[in-house]
Amino acid sequence: MDLSKLASGLLQGAEEIVRSDEACLDTAKTAEEAARYLARNLDERKELVDLEHEGYTLFDALSLSWTRLAQSFDPSQAASNDTKGWASEDSRIQLASALGKLERNLIAGIQPFQDIAEQHEEAIRALIFNITTFVRIEDERFFTLHAILAQLLCNLISPSSGQAGADRLADKYLRLYLSGGRNEDIIIRLLDSRDSKTNNATLHLLNNVVRGDRNRLQLLLSDIGVRWLAKILNRMDEWVEAQNGLFELGASIFNQMIDHSLHPKLFDLLSDPGEVITPSQTVLLKILDSHLSSSRSSAPSPSPHIFLIGLFHNLARYSKISIDSKADDPRLPKVFEGLILVTEGLSAVGLAVQSRKDQHRPSEGLEGDAELAWNMKDVEGGVVKPSIELLRSLDTFFPRLNPRVQSQSTGATIMPISDDLKPFSNLKRNIVQLLGILTFEDTLVGDQVREAEGIQLILGMTEIDENNPYLREHALLCVRNLMLNNPANQAIVSQMNPVGVLSPENGELLPVPDKMKKK
Protein backbone atom coordinates (compact mmCIF):
# COMPACT_ATOMS: atom_id res chain seq x y z
CA MET A 1 0.00 0.00 0.00
CA ASP A 2 1.46 3.32 -1.15
CA LEU A 3 -0.06 6.32 0.63
CA SER A 4 2.25 8.82 -1.04
CA LYS A 5 0.07 9.14 -4.16
CA LEU A 6 -2.98 9.91 -2.04
CA ALA A 7 -0.98 12.45 -0.04
CA SER A 8 0.36 14.07 -3.19
CA GLY A 9 -3.09 14.33 -4.72
CA LEU A 10 -4.54 15.93 -1.60
CA LEU A 11 -1.66 18.37 -1.31
CA GLN A 12 -1.83 19.51 -4.90
CA GLY A 13 -5.57 19.77 -5.27
CA ALA A 14 -7.39 19.73 -1.93
CA GLU A 15 -9.67 22.60 -2.89
CA GLU A 16 -10.25 21.32 -6.41
CA ILE A 17 -11.21 17.92 -5.05
CA VAL A 18 -13.82 19.43 -2.73
CA ARG A 19 -15.28 21.33 -5.71
CA SER A 20 -15.77 18.28 -7.92
CA ASP A 21 -18.19 15.42 -7.37
CA GLU A 22 -16.07 13.10 -9.48
CA ALA A 23 -12.85 14.01 -7.66
CA CYS A 24 -14.57 13.66 -4.27
CA LEU A 25 -15.80 10.18 -5.08
CA ASP A 26 -12.52 9.03 -6.64
CA THR A 27 -10.50 10.28 -3.67
CA ALA A 28 -13.01 8.76 -1.27
CA LYS A 29 -12.64 5.39 -2.99
CA THR A 30 -8.84 5.51 -2.68
CA ALA A 31 -9.00 6.58 0.96
CA GLU A 32 -11.53 3.83 1.76
CA GLU A 33 -9.21 1.20 0.31
CA ALA A 34 -6.29 2.58 2.31
CA ALA A 35 -8.38 2.63 5.49
CA ARG A 36 -9.35 -1.01 5.03
CA TYR A 37 -5.74 -1.99 4.40
CA LEU A 38 -4.60 -0.20 7.56
CA ALA A 39 -7.30 -1.92 9.61
CA ARG A 40 -5.99 -5.30 8.44
CA ASN A 41 -2.31 -4.40 8.79
CA LEU A 42 -1.97 -2.20 11.85
CA ASP A 43 1.64 -3.20 12.39
CA GLU A 44 2.66 -1.64 9.05
CA ARG A 45 1.41 1.85 9.82
CA LYS A 46 4.72 3.32 10.94
CA GLU A 47 6.39 2.07 7.77
CA LEU A 48 3.71 3.53 5.52
CA VAL A 49 4.11 7.06 6.88
CA ASP A 50 7.71 8.17 7.28
CA LEU A 51 7.75 11.16 9.61
CA GLU A 52 11.51 11.54 9.09
CA HIS A 53 11.10 12.11 5.37
CA GLU A 54 11.82 15.66 4.27
CA GLY A 55 8.91 17.50 2.77
CA TYR A 56 5.20 17.19 3.26
CA THR A 57 3.56 14.11 4.74
CA LEU A 58 0.12 12.59 4.54
CA PHE A 59 -0.79 14.49 7.71
CA ASP A 60 -0.04 17.80 6.00
CA ALA A 61 -2.28 16.75 3.13
CA LEU A 62 -5.04 15.80 5.54
CA SER A 63 -4.75 19.20 7.22
CA LEU A 64 -5.55 20.94 3.94
CA SER A 65 -8.47 18.61 3.27
CA TRP A 66 -10.03 19.02 6.72
CA THR A 67 -9.75 22.80 6.46
CA ARG A 68 -11.48 22.88 3.07
CA LEU A 69 -14.17 20.44 4.15
CA ALA A 70 -14.89 22.44 7.30
CA GLN A 71 -15.25 25.59 5.19
CA SER A 72 -17.55 23.89 2.71
CA PHE A 73 -19.98 22.80 5.45
CA ASP A 74 -19.93 26.11 7.36
CA PRO A 75 -23.62 27.09 7.73
CA SER A 76 -22.70 30.68 8.58
CA GLN A 77 -21.16 31.02 5.12
CA ALA A 78 -24.02 29.42 3.24
CA ALA A 79 -24.51 32.36 0.88
CA SER A 80 -20.86 32.62 -0.14
CA ASN A 81 -20.49 28.83 -0.26
CA ASP A 82 -23.16 28.68 -2.93
CA THR A 83 -20.97 30.82 -5.17
CA LYS A 84 -17.81 28.80 -4.55
CA GLY A 85 -19.08 25.80 -6.44
CA TRP A 86 -18.50 23.09 -3.87
CA ALA A 87 -19.27 19.53 -4.82
CA SER A 88 -22.64 18.15 -3.77
CA GLU A 89 -23.21 17.65 -0.07
CA ASP A 90 -23.46 13.87 -0.46
CA SER A 91 -20.12 13.72 -2.31
CA ARG A 92 -18.40 15.78 0.35
CA ILE A 93 -19.90 13.58 3.07
CA GLN A 94 -18.42 10.51 1.36
CA LEU A 95 -15.02 12.18 1.05
CA ALA A 96 -14.96 13.30 4.69
CA SER A 97 -16.09 9.85 5.86
CA ALA A 98 -13.35 8.09 3.89
CA LEU A 99 -10.61 10.45 5.06
CA GLY A 100 -11.89 10.13 8.62
CA LYS A 101 -11.69 6.34 8.49
CA LEU A 102 -8.19 6.55 7.04
CA GLU A 103 -6.80 8.85 9.71
CA ARG A 104 -8.77 7.14 12.49
CA ASN A 105 -7.10 3.83 11.65
CA LEU A 106 -3.72 5.43 11.06
CA ILE A 107 -3.22 7.25 14.37
CA ALA A 108 -4.87 4.88 16.86
CA GLY A 109 -2.45 4.17 19.70
CA ILE A 110 0.62 5.71 18.01
CA GLN A 111 1.70 8.77 19.96
CA PRO A 112 4.02 10.29 17.30
CA PHE A 113 1.16 10.15 14.80
CA GLN A 114 -1.20 11.70 17.35
CA ASP A 115 1.27 14.50 18.01
CA ILE A 116 1.62 15.45 14.35
CA ALA A 117 -2.11 15.03 13.64
CA GLU A 118 -2.76 17.59 16.37
CA GLN A 119 -2.01 20.26 13.77
CA HIS A 120 -5.48 19.81 12.30
CA GLU A 121 -7.51 19.11 15.44
CA GLU A 122 -8.95 22.60 15.08
CA ALA A 123 -10.10 21.87 11.53
CA ILE A 124 -11.66 18.56 12.57
CA ARG A 125 -13.37 20.29 15.47
CA ALA A 126 -14.70 22.99 13.13
CA LEU A 127 -16.04 20.32 10.77
CA ILE A 128 -17.77 18.51 13.65
CA PHE A 129 -19.26 21.82 14.78
CA ASN A 130 -20.55 22.56 11.28
CA ILE A 131 -22.16 19.16 10.72
CA THR A 132 -23.88 19.01 14.12
CA THR A 133 -26.21 21.95 13.64
CA PHE A 134 -29.80 21.64 14.80
CA VAL A 135 -30.82 20.32 11.39
CA ARG A 136 -27.79 18.21 10.51
CA ILE A 137 -27.61 16.40 13.87
CA GLU A 138 -30.97 14.82 12.97
CA ASP A 139 -30.17 14.25 9.29
CA GLU A 140 -29.46 10.54 8.79
CA ARG A 141 -27.19 11.32 5.85
CA PHE A 142 -24.69 12.74 8.36
CA PHE A 143 -24.93 9.96 10.96
CA THR A 144 -22.03 7.90 9.64
CA LEU A 145 -19.83 10.98 9.35
CA HIS A 146 -20.74 12.05 12.90
CA ALA A 147 -19.63 8.66 14.21
CA ILE A 148 -16.42 8.51 12.17
CA LEU A 149 -15.27 11.98 13.20
CA ALA A 150 -16.09 11.25 16.84
CA GLN A 151 -13.97 8.08 16.55
CA LEU A 152 -11.18 10.06 14.89
CA LEU A 153 -11.23 12.68 17.63
CA CYS A 154 -11.22 9.92 20.23
CA ASN A 155 -8.15 8.29 18.67
CA LEU A 156 -6.46 11.67 18.29
CA ILE A 157 -6.60 12.81 21.93
CA SER A 158 -6.86 9.56 23.92
CA PRO A 159 -3.68 8.60 25.84
CA SER A 160 -1.80 6.03 23.77
CA SER A 161 -0.20 4.45 26.85
CA GLY A 162 0.33 4.90 30.55
CA GLN A 163 3.73 6.49 30.06
CA ALA A 164 4.50 10.01 31.21
CA GLY A 165 3.38 12.59 28.67
CA ALA A 166 1.07 10.23 26.81
CA ASP A 167 -1.93 12.08 28.23
CA ARG A 168 -0.82 15.54 27.08
CA LEU A 169 -3.45 15.80 24.36
CA ALA A 170 -6.17 14.39 26.61
CA ASP A 171 -5.47 17.02 29.23
CA LYS A 172 -5.10 19.88 26.76
CA TYR A 173 -8.21 19.24 24.73
CA LEU A 174 -10.50 18.25 27.58
CA ARG A 175 -9.73 21.64 29.09
CA LEU A 176 -10.35 23.31 25.74
CA TYR A 177 -13.71 21.60 25.21
CA LEU A 178 -14.72 22.63 28.74
CA SER A 179 -13.53 26.22 28.33
CA GLY A 180 -17.00 27.55 27.60
CA GLY A 181 -16.45 28.66 24.02
CA ARG A 182 -19.39 27.88 21.76
CA ASN A 183 -17.20 26.56 18.96
CA GLU A 184 -15.07 24.51 21.35
CA ASP A 185 -17.85 22.54 23.05
CA ILE A 186 -18.44 19.89 20.42
CA ILE A 187 -19.01 17.17 23.02
CA ILE A 188 -22.44 18.49 23.97
CA ARG A 189 -23.37 18.54 20.28
CA LEU A 190 -22.23 14.95 19.73
CA LEU A 191 -24.18 13.85 22.81
CA ASP A 192 -27.31 15.26 21.18
CA SER A 193 -27.01 12.69 18.41
CA ARG A 194 -29.60 9.92 18.24
CA ASP A 195 -27.16 7.69 16.39
CA SER A 196 -25.87 4.90 18.63
CA LYS A 197 -22.47 4.72 16.90
CA THR A 198 -21.89 8.42 17.47
CA ASN A 199 -22.94 8.05 21.09
CA ASN A 200 -20.61 5.07 21.43
CA ALA A 201 -17.61 6.97 20.08
CA THR A 202 -18.33 10.03 22.22
CA LEU A 203 -18.64 7.97 25.40
CA HIS A 204 -15.43 6.12 24.54
CA LEU A 205 -13.71 9.48 24.11
CA LEU A 206 -14.84 10.69 27.53
CA ASN A 207 -13.91 7.41 29.19
CA ASN A 208 -10.47 7.42 27.63
CA VAL A 209 -9.55 10.97 28.58
CA VAL A 210 -10.63 10.70 32.24
CA ARG A 211 -9.74 7.09 33.01
CA GLY A 212 -7.66 6.82 36.15
CA ASP A 213 -7.04 10.57 36.40
CA ARG A 214 -8.71 12.37 39.29
CA ASN A 215 -7.74 15.81 38.01
CA ARG A 216 -9.48 15.33 34.68
CA LEU A 217 -12.47 13.76 36.40
CA GLN A 218 -12.71 16.88 38.52
CA LEU A 219 -12.75 18.98 35.36
CA LEU A 220 -16.09 17.35 34.55
CA LEU A 221 -17.53 19.05 37.64
CA SER A 222 -17.31 22.42 35.89
CA ASP A 223 -20.52 23.96 34.57
CA ILE A 224 -19.96 22.65 31.05
CA GLY A 225 -18.90 19.22 32.31
CA VAL A 226 -22.00 18.87 34.47
CA ARG A 227 -24.10 19.64 31.39
CA TRP A 228 -22.40 16.75 29.60
CA LEU A 229 -22.90 14.41 32.53
CA ALA A 230 -26.54 15.40 33.00
CA LYS A 231 -27.21 14.74 29.32
CA ILE A 232 -25.62 11.29 29.64
CA LEU A 233 -27.57 10.49 32.80
CA ASN A 234 -30.84 11.56 31.22
CA ARG A 235 -30.33 9.05 28.42
CA MET A 236 -29.25 6.10 30.56
CA ASP A 237 -32.76 4.63 30.87
CA GLU A 238 -33.08 4.75 27.08
CA TRP A 239 -29.70 3.05 26.65
CA VAL A 240 -30.33 0.30 29.19
CA GLU A 241 -33.47 -0.65 27.27
CA ALA A 242 -31.57 -0.70 23.97
CA GLN A 243 -28.93 -3.13 25.33
CA ASN A 244 -26.35 -1.74 22.91
CA GLY A 245 -23.48 -1.23 25.35
CA LEU A 246 -24.04 2.50 25.74
CA PHE A 247 -25.38 2.14 29.28
CA GLU A 248 -22.22 0.35 30.37
CA LEU A 249 -20.02 2.98 28.74
CA GLY A 250 -21.94 5.79 30.41
CA ALA A 251 -21.96 4.04 33.78
CA SER A 252 -18.19 3.58 33.57
CA ILE A 253 -17.68 7.34 33.72
CA PHE A 254 -19.79 7.66 36.86
CA ASN A 255 -18.25 4.60 38.50
CA GLN A 256 -14.88 6.28 38.09
CA MET A 257 -16.26 9.37 39.80
CA ILE A 258 -17.56 7.19 42.63
CA ASP A 259 -14.17 5.49 42.93
CA HIS A 260 -12.60 8.93 43.37
CA SER A 261 -15.30 10.11 45.83
CA LEU A 262 -16.52 12.84 43.48
CA HIS A 263 -20.16 11.71 43.34
CA PRO A 264 -21.45 13.73 46.33
CA LYS A 265 -20.38 16.98 44.67
CA LEU A 266 -21.79 15.86 41.33
CA PHE A 267 -25.09 14.94 42.99
CA ASP A 268 -25.28 18.42 44.47
CA LEU A 269 -24.43 20.08 41.14
CA LEU A 270 -27.22 18.13 39.43
CA SER A 271 -29.83 19.61 41.75
CA ASP A 272 -32.55 22.04 40.74
CA PRO A 273 -33.99 24.53 43.27
CA GLY A 274 -37.47 23.83 41.92
CA GLU A 275 -37.26 20.05 42.31
CA VAL A 276 -37.01 17.76 45.32
CA ILE A 277 -34.89 15.38 43.26
CA THR A 278 -34.03 15.66 39.57
CA PRO A 279 -34.16 12.82 37.02
CA SER A 280 -30.39 12.95 36.56
CA GLN A 281 -29.87 12.67 40.34
CA THR A 282 -32.14 9.63 40.39
CA VAL A 283 -30.11 7.89 37.69
CA LEU A 284 -26.88 8.71 39.52
CA LEU A 285 -28.38 7.07 42.63
CA LYS A 286 -29.13 3.95 40.57
CA ILE A 287 -25.49 3.74 39.50
CA LEU A 288 -24.31 4.37 43.07
CA ASP A 289 -26.68 1.71 44.38
CA SER A 290 -25.26 -0.83 41.94
CA HIS A 291 -21.72 0.23 42.85
CA LEU A 292 -22.34 -0.16 46.58
CA SER A 293 -23.98 -3.55 46.12
CA SER A 294 -21.05 -4.94 44.15
CA SER A 295 -18.16 -3.27 45.99
CA ARG A 296 -16.07 -5.54 48.20
CA SER A 297 -13.93 -2.86 49.78
CA SER A 298 -14.81 -0.21 52.31
CA ALA A 299 -15.15 3.41 51.30
CA PRO A 300 -12.37 5.82 52.30
CA SER A 301 -12.66 7.98 55.38
CA PRO A 302 -14.47 10.26 55.81
CA SER A 303 -17.14 8.29 54.00
CA PRO A 304 -18.12 9.97 50.71
CA HIS A 305 -21.53 8.31 51.00
CA ILE A 306 -22.47 10.25 54.14
CA PHE A 307 -24.60 12.57 51.98
CA LEU A 308 -27.12 9.73 51.63
CA ILE A 309 -28.24 10.27 55.23
CA GLY A 310 -29.06 13.92 54.64
CA LEU A 311 -30.77 13.00 51.40
CA PHE A 312 -32.85 10.39 53.22
CA HIS A 313 -33.96 13.03 55.73
CA ASN A 314 -34.98 15.46 52.99
CA LEU A 315 -36.89 12.91 50.93
CA ALA A 316 -38.54 11.32 53.97
CA ARG A 317 -39.63 14.71 55.29
CA TYR A 318 -41.12 15.70 51.95
CA SER A 319 -42.89 12.34 51.57
CA LYS A 320 -44.44 12.46 55.03
CA ILE A 321 -45.72 16.00 54.58
CA SER A 322 -47.15 15.15 51.17
CA ILE A 323 -48.81 11.92 52.34
CA ASP A 324 -50.29 13.50 55.45
CA SER A 325 -51.70 16.39 53.42
CA LYS A 326 -53.72 13.88 51.34
CA ALA A 327 -53.26 16.18 48.34
CA ASP A 328 -52.49 14.96 44.85
CA ASP A 329 -48.73 15.38 44.41
CA PRO A 330 -47.24 14.53 41.00
CA ARG A 331 -43.73 14.75 42.46
CA LEU A 332 -44.31 12.02 45.01
CA PRO A 333 -43.57 9.00 42.76
CA LYS A 334 -40.14 10.39 41.91
CA VAL A 335 -39.47 11.11 45.57
CA PHE A 336 -40.49 7.54 46.43
CA GLU A 337 -38.12 6.25 43.75
CA GLY A 338 -35.31 8.29 45.26
CA LEU A 339 -36.09 6.93 48.72
CA ILE A 340 -36.06 3.35 47.45
CA LEU A 341 -32.61 3.90 45.96
CA VAL A 342 -31.27 5.64 49.07
CA THR A 343 -32.53 2.92 51.41
CA GLU A 344 -31.05 0.24 49.15
CA GLY A 345 -27.70 2.02 49.18
CA LEU A 346 -27.71 2.44 52.96
CA SER A 347 -28.72 -1.20 53.40
CA ALA A 348 -25.87 -2.31 51.14
CA VAL A 349 -23.41 -0.40 53.30
CA GLY A 350 -24.87 -1.82 56.50
CA LEU A 351 -24.71 -5.38 55.18
CA ALA A 352 -21.11 -4.87 54.00
CA VAL A 353 -20.05 -3.67 57.45
CA GLN A 354 -21.71 -6.66 59.12
CA SER A 355 -20.21 -9.04 56.57
CA ARG A 356 -16.71 -7.83 57.35
CA LYS A 357 -17.40 -8.32 61.05
CA ASP A 358 -18.67 -11.84 60.43
CA GLN A 359 -15.53 -12.67 58.46
CA HIS A 360 -13.41 -11.43 61.38
CA ARG A 361 -11.64 -8.87 59.27
CA PRO A 362 -9.55 -6.26 61.09
CA SER A 363 -11.76 -3.62 62.66
CA GLU A 364 -12.19 -0.45 60.64
CA GLY A 365 -12.95 1.58 63.73
CA LEU A 366 -15.18 4.47 62.79
CA GLU A 367 -13.80 4.81 59.29
CA GLY A 368 -15.23 4.32 55.84
CA ASP A 369 -18.40 2.25 55.72
CA ALA A 370 -18.31 1.71 59.48
CA GLU A 371 -18.44 5.46 59.97
CA LEU A 372 -21.51 5.69 57.74
CA ALA A 373 -23.21 2.83 59.60
CA TRP A 374 -22.52 4.55 62.92
CA ASN A 375 -24.01 7.80 61.62
CA MET A 376 -27.11 5.95 60.45
CA LYS A 377 -27.65 4.82 64.04
CA ASP A 378 -27.07 8.23 65.60
CA VAL A 379 -29.95 9.27 67.87
CA GLU A 380 -30.17 12.84 66.59
CA GLY A 381 -28.98 12.76 63.00
CA GLY A 382 -29.51 9.12 62.08
CA VAL A 383 -32.24 7.44 60.07
CA VAL A 384 -34.00 5.31 62.69
CA LYS A 385 -36.66 7.69 63.99
CA PRO A 386 -37.34 9.33 60.60
CA SER A 387 -37.78 5.81 59.19
CA ILE A 388 -40.44 4.96 61.78
CA GLU A 389 -42.27 8.24 61.17
CA LEU A 390 -42.28 7.72 57.42
CA LEU A 391 -43.20 4.05 57.77
CA ARG A 392 -46.27 5.02 59.78
CA SER A 393 -47.46 7.34 57.01
CA LEU A 394 -46.66 4.78 54.32
CA ASP A 395 -48.63 2.10 56.12
CA THR A 396 -51.75 4.16 55.51
CA PHE A 397 -50.79 5.32 52.04
CA PHE A 398 -50.04 1.79 50.77
CA PRO A 399 -52.88 -0.41 52.11
CA ARG A 400 -52.10 -4.04 52.79
CA LEU A 401 -53.66 -6.76 50.69
CA ASN A 402 -54.27 -10.13 52.32
CA PRO A 403 -56.71 -12.20 50.25
CA ARG A 404 -57.41 -14.44 53.25
CA VAL A 405 -58.59 -11.61 55.45
CA GLN A 406 -61.75 -9.58 54.85
CA SER A 407 -63.24 -6.74 56.76
CA GLN A 408 -65.24 -8.08 59.70
CA SER A 409 -67.77 -5.27 59.43
CA THR A 410 -68.49 -5.10 55.70
CA GLY A 411 -67.05 -8.27 54.27
CA ALA A 412 -65.28 -6.17 51.62
CA THR A 413 -61.81 -7.17 50.53
CA ILE A 414 -59.10 -4.53 50.80
CA MET A 415 -58.43 -3.30 47.28
CA PRO A 416 -54.94 -3.39 45.81
CA ILE A 417 -53.10 -0.14 45.18
CA SER A 418 -53.24 1.50 41.77
CA ASP A 419 -50.84 0.41 39.05
CA ASP A 420 -49.01 3.75 38.94
CA LEU A 421 -48.14 3.48 42.64
CA LYS A 422 -47.48 -0.25 42.81
CA PRO A 423 -43.78 0.02 41.81
CA PHE A 424 -43.17 2.18 44.89
CA SER A 425 -44.99 0.06 47.46
CA ASN A 426 -41.71 -1.76 48.07
CA LEU A 427 -40.53 1.34 49.89
CA LYS A 428 -42.11 -0.05 53.07
CA ARG A 429 -40.15 -3.26 52.66
CA ASN A 430 -36.92 -1.35 52.04
CA ILE A 431 -37.33 0.73 55.19
CA VAL A 432 -38.11 -2.33 57.31
CA GLN A 433 -35.11 -4.10 55.79
CA LEU A 434 -32.87 -1.16 56.69
CA LEU A 435 -34.21 -1.15 60.25
CA GLY A 436 -33.61 -4.89 60.47
CA ILE A 437 -29.98 -4.38 59.47
CA LEU A 438 -29.43 -1.51 61.90
CA THR A 439 -31.05 -3.34 64.84
CA PHE A 440 -28.96 -6.49 64.37
CA GLU A 441 -27.01 -7.02 67.60
CA ASP A 442 -27.58 -3.40 68.59
CA THR A 443 -30.00 -2.86 71.47
CA LEU A 444 -29.44 0.90 71.40
CA VAL A 445 -31.04 1.06 67.97
CA GLY A 446 -33.80 -1.17 69.30
CA ASP A 447 -34.36 1.37 72.06
CA GLN A 448 -34.75 4.11 69.45
CA VAL A 449 -37.39 2.07 67.64
CA ARG A 450 -39.30 1.53 70.89
CA GLU A 451 -39.13 5.22 71.83
CA ALA A 452 -40.53 6.11 68.41
CA GLU A 453 -43.38 3.61 69.02
CA GLY A 454 -42.19 1.55 66.11
CA ILE A 455 -42.40 -1.93 67.63
CA GLN A 456 -46.18 -2.18 67.29
CA LEU A 457 -45.96 -0.76 63.77
CA ILE A 458 -43.41 -3.33 62.61
CA LEU A 459 -45.26 -6.16 64.35
CA GLY A 460 -48.30 -5.25 62.27
CA MET A 461 -46.26 -5.78 59.12
CA THR A 462 -45.56 -9.43 59.89
CA GLU A 463 -48.93 -10.23 58.34
CA ILE A 464 -48.91 -11.25 54.69
CA ASP A 465 -49.24 -8.35 52.23
CA GLU A 466 -49.52 -9.16 48.54
CA ASN A 467 -48.90 -5.52 47.70
CA ASN A 468 -45.48 -5.82 49.30
CA PRO A 469 -43.64 -9.07 48.58
CA TYR A 470 -41.16 -10.07 51.30
CA LEU A 471 -42.27 -7.29 53.64
CA ARG A 472 -43.43 -9.95 56.10
CA GLU A 473 -40.07 -11.74 56.05
CA HIS A 474 -38.10 -8.55 56.66
CA ALA A 475 -40.54 -7.53 59.40
CA LEU A 476 -40.10 -10.88 61.15
CA LEU A 477 -36.32 -10.51 61.07
CA CYS A 478 -36.57 -6.97 62.37
CA VAL A 479 -38.87 -8.06 65.23
CA ARG A 480 -36.42 -10.81 66.10
CA ASN A 481 -33.57 -8.26 66.30
CA LEU A 482 -35.72 -5.87 68.34
CA MET A 483 -36.54 -8.54 70.92
CA LEU A 484 -33.10 -10.13 71.27
CA ASN A 485 -31.40 -9.11 74.54
CA ASN A 486 -33.79 -6.19 74.97
CA PRO A 487 -36.11 -6.72 77.99
CA ALA A 488 -37.79 -3.34 77.51
CA ASN A 489 -38.85 -4.26 73.99
CA GLN A 490 -39.93 -7.71 75.12
CA ALA A 491 -42.11 -6.07 77.77
CA ILE A 492 -43.92 -4.08 75.08
CA VAL A 493 -44.93 -7.29 73.34
CA SER A 494 -45.89 -9.06 76.57
CA GLN A 495 -48.33 -6.26 77.39
CA MET A 496 -50.10 -6.50 74.04
CA ASN A 497 -53.31 -8.48 73.64
CA PRO A 498 -52.82 -11.00 70.83
CA VAL A 499 -55.43 -10.81 68.09
CA GLY A 500 -54.32 -13.97 66.34
CA VAL A 501 -51.46 -16.25 65.41
CA LEU A 502 -49.75 -16.13 62.04
CA SER A 503 -49.59 -19.42 60.21
CA PRO A 504 -45.93 -20.28 59.49
CA GLU A 505 -46.97 -21.83 56.16
CA ASN A 506 -48.86 -19.00 54.50
CA GLY A 507 -49.02 -16.04 56.87
CA GLU A 508 -52.75 -16.47 57.46
CA LEU A 509 -54.05 -14.94 60.68
CA LEU A 510 -55.39 -17.82 62.81
CA PRO A 511 -57.42 -17.62 66.05
CA VAL A 512 -55.50 -17.25 69.31
CA PRO A 513 -55.11 -20.62 71.09
CA ASP A 514 -56.71 -20.79 74.53
CA LYS A 515 -53.37 -21.28 76.25
CA MET A 516 -52.14 -17.95 74.83
CA LYS A 517 -55.17 -15.94 75.89
CA LYS A 518 -54.66 -13.63 78.81
CA LYS A 519 -56.61 -14.60 81.91
Key terms:
519 residues; mainly alpha; 3 domains; two-stranded antiparallel ribbon; 27 helices; 2 strands; 1% strand; cell cycle
Q: What number of domains?
A: 3
Q: Specify the biggest β-sheet.
A: 2 strands, antiparallel
How many distinct helices? 27
Shape: elongated
Strand content: under 5%
Helix fraction, binned, reads 55-70%
InterPro entries: ARM-like (IPR011989), ARM-type_fold (IPR016024), Ataxin-10/CTR86_families (IPR051374), Ataxin-10_domain (IPR019156)
Family: Belongs to the ataxin-10 family.
Keywords: Cell cycle, Cell division
Pfam families: Atx10homo_assoc (PF09759)
Topology overview:
Blueprint: H1 4-19, H2 21-40, H3 45-48, H4 58-72, H5 78-84, H6 89-107, H7 111-117, H8 121-130, H9 143-157, H10 168-177, H11 187-191, H12 196-210, H13 214-219, H14 223-233, H15 236-242, H16 246-259, H17 263-269, H18 279-294, H19 307-325, H20 332-358, H21 368-376, H22 384-397, H23 426-439, H24 443-451, H25 455-459, H26 471-483, H27 487-494, E1 501-502, E2 509-510
Antiparallel strand pairs: 1-2
Briefly summarize what is shown.
By secondary structure, this protein is mainly α.
Describe the protein in words.
By secondary structure, this protein is mostly helical. The protein folds into three domains: 1-211, no CATH class; 216-274, no CATH class; 295-405 and 414-519, no CATH class. It has 27 helices and two strands. The protein has a two-stranded antiparallel sheet with strand order 1-2. Strand 1 and strand 2 form a beta hairpin. Helix 19 (307-325) packs across helix 20 and helix 23 packs parallel to helix 26 (471-483). The radius of gyration is 31 Å and the shape is elongated. It starts with a helix and ends in a 9-residue tail after the last strand.
